[in-house]
Amino acid sequence: MEILIYFAVILIVPLWANMRVKNTYKKYSKVATTANMTGAEVARQILHENGIYDVTVRPGKGFLSDHYNPAKKEIVLSPDNFHGMSVAGAAVAAHEVGHAIQDAEGYAFLRFRSSLAPMANLGSNLSIFLIIGGAILGASGLYLAGIIFFAVAVLFQFVTLPVEFNASSRAMDQMVSIGLIRNEEEPHAKKVLNAAALTYVAAALIALLELLRFILMFAGMNGDD
């Protein structure tokens, strides 16, 4: 029964978080900003207000595919956010600029996350094979190696949290100080950013639960020896 509850949690929580961000985004993507600026214009204005001129803003593909690429120094906005003039689009664009500002200022958590990224990618791809192989072969050393690799991926998830929350905080500060949104629009923008943050929190919690499950299984494997 416990295992069924566990798998229900790791399936339902991410789905709930994703549904909430999509529903919140869709709601406020229909609310126009009084500034009448596209997401691309919002991003460029915040960049220039902060003295950042080496970051480009370009349209991407797909729904909510927005991201900042520090290697290429570019902000990629999904088509609706790049061209649209909604509160949701402005909030998302400002959030991605928040990452560009972090990069320009050498924000410690962003630098740490970037340094972890190669090992985290390797860990997320390799760990499950090591864990399954260790379990099948009864090789505790192999299983432990998988746990260590997976732990790096989990650490990456948790380091991502302050990076994302800080970018959202910067986004709100910038939009308000520059006058890109008015007082009545602030709660709407915050709801969009908070809903998006839930997806990162959910991912981190699920990853931690998985890590704890693997550790308990490893302890059980050694206890049987």
Topology diagram in text:
Blueprint: H1 2-28, H2 39-49, E1 56-59, E2 67-69, E3 74-77, H3 79-83, H4 87-105, H5 108-137, H6 140-178, H7 186-224
Parallel strand pairs: 1-3
Antiparallel strand pairs: 2-3
Helix pairs in contact: 1-7, 2-4, 4-6, 4-7, 5-6, 6-7
Keywords: Hydrolase, Membrane, Protease, Transmembrane, Transmembrane helix
Protein name: Zn-dependent protease
GO molecular function, one term: peptidase activity
Outline of this structure?
The chain has 225 residues and is mainly alpha-helical.
Commentary on this structure:
By secondary structure, the chain is mainly alpha-helical. It has one domain (2-224). 76% of the residues lie in helices and 5% in strands. The chain has seven helices and three strands. The protein has helices spanning 2-28, 39-49, 79-83, 87-105, 108-137, 140-178, 186-224; strands at residues 56-59, 67-69, 74-77. A three-stranded mixed sheet has the order 1-3-2. Strand 2 and strand 3 form a beta hairpin. The longest helix has 39 residues, at 140-178. The mean pLDDT is 93.
